Amino acid sequence: MRRDMDFGELGDVEGALRAEGVGLAPISTGDASLVTGGVTVLATATANDIVEGKLKGLVVPGGSQDEAGLAAVRSLVELAKANGLLVIAFSDGVALAAESLGVPAEAPGVVFKNGAATLLNERAELSAAVGAL
């Protein structure tokens, strides 16, 4: 979870992901919980869940972050890659994931899977890409 999570031009994608049957389990990259707009969001997953195969993918939103937070996100992306998980990135999270995965991509959103990138330029493409997983 990152303060100021940003899904860019695709807007809040949580509903679109859930509509395609994706369950979301926030992983904290800092404090154990995140308070935003008066709402506390508790982390419900850990990096260990990636290693143990409990997660099918990693969603990387964009958003401003300090170096320690960015390093934590990079570490999660690299862990996802090492364990064969897909990565769905948004906004400036796309550049971070692309660099960490070694797969060039530039779009408002990208699905990284098996060394390839599916570009997501509009919300309908997100639903179609996630539905095909």
Give a quick precis of the structure:
By secondary structure, this protein is of the alpha+beta class. The chain is built from 5 helices and 6 strands.
Structure in words:
Helix content is 34%, strand content 20%. The protein has one domain (8-131). The two termini are 23 Å apart. It contains five helices and six strands. The model has no long low-confidence stretch (mean pLDDT 87). Helix 3 crosses helix 4 (93-101). It has a four-stranded mixed sheet, sandwiched between helices. The protein is of the alpha+beta class and 133 residues long. Strand 5 (109-113) and strand 6 (116-120) form a beta hairpin.
Shape: globular
H-E order: HEEHEHEHEEH
Counted by DSSP, the helix tally is 5
The total domain count is: 1
Q: State the low-pLDDT regions, or none.
A: none
Helix content: 25-40%
Distance between the first and last residues' Cα: 23 Å
- Overall mean pLDDT stands at 87
* Major β-sheet strand ordering: 3-4-5-6
Secondary-structure class: alpha+beta
Topology of this structure?
Blueprint (H helix, E strand, L loop, with lengths): L13 H6 L13 E4 L2 E4 L4 H5 L5 E4 L6 H16 L3 E5 L2 H9 L7 E5 L2 E5 L2 H9 L2
Parallel strand pairs: 3-4
Antiparallel strand pairs: 1-2, 4-5, 5-6
Helix pairs in contact: 3-4
Question: Descriptors for this entry?
Answer:
single chain, 133 residues, alpha+beta, two-stranded antiparallel sheet
